[in-house]
Amino acid sequence: MKITVVGAGNVGATTAQRIVDKELANEIVLVDIVEGLPQGKGLDICESTPIEGTDTRIRGTNSYDDTSGSDIVVITAGIARKPGMTREQLQETNAGIVKGVTEAIVAKSPQAIIIVVSNPLDVMTYVAYKVSGFEPRRVIGMAGILDTARYRTFIAMELGVSVEDIQALVLGGHGDSMVPLVRYTTIAGIPITEFLDQATINKLVQRARDGGIEIVNYLKTGSAYYAPSAAAVQMVEAIVKDKKRILPCAAYVQGEYGLRDTYVGVPVKLGRKGVEQILEVPLTAEEKAALTKSADDVKSNIAKLKL
Ligand code: APR
Question: Which of 51, 105, 243, 268 has the fewest CB atoms lying closer than 10 Å?
Answer without folding.
Answer: 51
